[in-house]
Here is the input.
Amino acid sequence: MHLGNSLSALLDGSARLTLLPRGEDYIITMPYAHCKGILLGTLTMEMGGEVYLKCEKTGYRADLEFKLKVSSSLTKTKS
Here is the structure.
């Protein structure tokens, strides 16, 4: 059941992480932000989606997936 009490925002762009002692630059993509409880309840924010970290110099790459928690209202069963 959707009550219009949440929103998601796509974060565009990327960030750069530099490890100075190693001379490595890592590009990091952004996940999306999901906010619940905008009007009612407790305001919470979670990050979701797929992100990668990549270093051109070394070729290292890590793929991460952030999963949102399942809403308790969706997991309750009727007796």
